[in-house]
Specification:
CATH architecture of one domain in chain B: Orthogonal Bundle
Order of helices and strands of chain A: EEEHEEHEHHHHEHEHEEHHEE
Oligomer: heterodimer
Radius of gyration of chain A: 21 Å
Order of helices and strands of chain B: HHHHHHHHHHHH
Strand content of chain A: 15-25%
Largest sheet of chain A: 8 strands, mixed
Structural class of chain B: mainly alpha
CATH topology of chain A: Rossmann fold
Distance between the termini of chain B: 27 Å
Helix content of chain A: 25-40%
CATH superfamily of one domain in chain B: MetI-like
CATH superfamily of chain A: P-loop containing nucleotide triphosphate hydrolases
Distance between the termini of chain A: 30 Å
CATH architecture of chain A: 3-Layer(aba) Sandwich
Strand order of the largest sheet of chain A: 6-7-8-3-9-10-12-11
Number of helices of chain B: 12
CATH class of one domain in chain B: Mainly Alpha
Largest interface: A-B, 41 and 24 residues
Radius of gyration of chain B: 23 Å
Structural class of chain A: alpha/beta
CATH topology of one domain in chain B: MetI-like fold
Number of domains of chain A: 1
Number of helices of chain A: 10
């Protein structure tokens, strides 16, 4: 088996809130192979974005944030690096796309300036070379009249187009791993489909790996190779995309999949999971999903082990009652 | 699909320049200021006299065809001294304000960007500087360093730096929390790069508006300091100096101080008109955004 390109080991992140330490994520683990897409799914506040941010070393190094574990890129632990060393990786080998295309571009700089900047910084290109590459990139993300668009400002672009520009910026230096933090959440469905299609196509071309964060199971089904389901800062199920949709194990995953409205079922009300995600400070001891679980039993007061599904090497879940 | 997207893009927004163009008062202000500046630049061509050499035979003459604004107590042509004085007064004010804009703007951006202790230290020093009234601050500096052109520039710049720092800091605080700055971190840009290429362009407009307003104040400070004898030493003409000299003979020859005072008034007024116009043009509320 080949070595994973990117690897997160026992990543735990805690914040100090009102003098009390709260754990935002607990022992998150995942491996990412070359040309593989991993989706991290879960409700708001379950620790998806925090995980992605710490993968790029974007969490501020402050006294009230405590990070444990390892984030390994090609054998280098990114958590040990200084800000300056990290800047050599960010935007070059590791890149990120953000959720809000409307606010992720600087309104006072032209789109061209923003695309070429990382080329000038990381690849030490000349301005002319960078311009050429920039226009090529705009063509690649299918923006019509790239040459003309290159010198326009972000307000002259629509939401979907801006997200394409963001993708172009993120891909400028040909990253090995691309992190996409809910790249399609702010877009309407047709544009969403276009953007996902584009991402898949680009991934095939460039052989990069991708970590996509989303709460949309539809997105997961269309792009993922592997899926990580998170709840309350823990990974509760972890499997290949096919296995997860065919045979989900954890009650939370099942409930999530049940909550997707389906055209073949006639229903009056949308299915939902009762209750709310507990706050970071009020996490139940034992199984974190126990407050909302249908199958809850006495055993759930203890933290469940990570179980492996029989016959499926890479399918793990965290539950007592399956 | 993509074609319809392309069409949406052509919606025009009203540009800053268009608003500026449509304001008549701004045009009047600009016109006055440009005329005064041109007169200062071409001073030698606009008068046959020398601003410094004295003429004992023509002391304190009333305005006439020969001396449009009369002569002062040394027999020098007041019109000539006004023209040459404009050179120095405008030069000192503009240089001082531009220097203060650069230094104060940089301090404000650094303070706002790093926050915490850096912010605290820079802004407290600015607060101390602000606690001195503008004129008193100028007085202290000139009294300590002596009266020369450079020191006058330093004095005026020092009084104005904290205002620019404040104006630059406020928008920096809000801009640095935007997603596009976060995206800059994710792209591996250095702090200096982010401040210069991503925050500065967002802050520049507001700093510039204040700049145009503060040139007017700088002219006033220069005139005030010269008036109380802390400006550039005679016989070099400055507007404040001319008012000072005219004041000594105000009852015999009121025209000297009056014309110089009027010149200060007109230029300060024109700069305020420009400042108002630029402020309106930069204000997003008026742009309907």
């Amino acid at each position: 088996m080949t070595e994973p390109v990117f690897c997160v080991k026992d990543l735990s992140i805690s914040f100090k809130l009102n003098g009390k330490w709260c754990q935002a994520t607990q022992n998150v683990n995942f491996d990412l192979m070359e040309n593989e897409t991993l989706c991290i799914v879960g409700e708001s506040g379950c620790g998806k974005s925090i995980t992605a941010m710490s993968c790029l070393g974007l969490l501020p190094k402050k006294k009230n944030i405590h990070i444990e574990g390892q984030v390994l890129y090609k054998g280098v632990n990114l958590l040990d690096l200084t800000e300056k060393e990290l800047n050599d990786y960010r935007g070059d080998d590791l890149s990120m796309i953000f959720q809000e295309p409307m606010t992720s571009l600087n309104p006072v700089l032209t789109v061209g300036e923003q695309i070429t900047e990382s080329l000038l910084v990381h690849k030490s290109m000349t301005k002319a070379q960078a311009r050429e590459t920039g226009i090529e990139l705009l063509n690649k993300v299918k923006i019509p009249e790239a040459e003309k668009r290159f010198s326009q400002y972000p307000h002259q672009f629509s939401g979907g187009m801006r997200q394409r520009v963001m993708i172009a910026i993120a891909l400028a230096c040909k990253p090995t791993v691309l992190f996409a933090d809910e790249p399609t959440t702010a877009l309407d469905v047709t544009i969403q489909a276009q953007v996902l299609h584009l991402l898949k196509e680009l991934r095939r071309e460039t052989k990069m790996s991708m970590v996509m964060i989303t709460h949309d199971m539809g997105v997961v089904a269309s792009v993922a190779d592997k899926v990580l389901v998170m709840y309350g800062g823990q990974v509760i199920e972890n499997s290949s995309c096919k296995d997860l949709f065919e045979a989900p194990n954890h009650p939370y995953t099942k409930a999530l999949l049940n909550a997707i409205p389906r055209p073949d079922r006639h229903i009056d009300h949308l299915t939902s999971i009762p209750g709310q995600v507990p706050t970071l400070a009020g996490m139940p001891s034992g199984c974190r999903f126990s407050t909302r679980c249908e199958l809850v039993s006495d055993q759930c007061a203890m933290t469940p082990d990570v179980n492996t599904v029989a016959g499926q090497q890479s399918h793990h879940y965290r539950c007592w009652n399956v | 699909m993509i074609n319809t997207l392309a069409l949406n893009v052509k919606t025009a927004t009203v540009s800053t320049y268009q608003i500026l163009k449509s304001s008549k008062l701004t045009w009047i202000g600009t016109l006055i200021f440009v005329i005064v500046t041109l007169m200062a630049v071409f001073a030698p061509y606009l008068t046959p006299y020398d601003p410094i050499s004295q003429d004992p035979l023509a002391v304190l003459q009333e305005p006439s065809a020969l001396h449009w604004m009369g002569t002062d107590s040394y027999g020098r042509d007041v019109w000539t001294r006004m023209l040459y004085g404009a050179r120095i007064s405008l030069f000192i004010s503009v240089v001082a304000v531009v220097a203060a804009m650069i230094i104060g703007g940089a301090l404000g951006i650094v303070a706002g960007y790093y926050g915490g202790r850096v912010d605290m230290m820079i802004m407290r020093v600015m607060d101390i500087m602000l606690s001195f009234p503008t004129l008193i601050m100028g007085l202290i500096v000139v009294a300590m360093l002596g009266a020369s052109m450079t020191n006058l520039v330093i004095a005026i710049a020092l009084t104005v730096i904290p205002k620019f720092a404040r104006v630059a800091r406020a928008p920096t605080l809000s801009v640095k929390k935007r997603e596009y700055i976060e995206a800059c971190y994710a792209l591996g840009y250095s702090d200096i790069r982010i401040m210069v290429f991503h925050i500065l362009p967002n802050v520049f407009g507001e700093v510039l508006v204040i700049g145009s307003l503060w040139i007017a104040t700088a002219i006033r400070i220069e005139a005030s300091l010269s008036f109380i004898g802390l400006g550039i030493k005679p016989p070099t003409p400055t507007w404040g100096g001319i008012i000072r000299e005219g004041f000594n003979n105000f009852l015999d020859a009121p025209w000297i101080a009056t014309y110089a005072g009027l010149a200060v008034l007109v230029v300060v007024f024109s700069l305020n008109l420009i400042g108002d116009g630029v402020r309106d043009a930069v204000d997003p509320k008026l742009r309907g955004e």
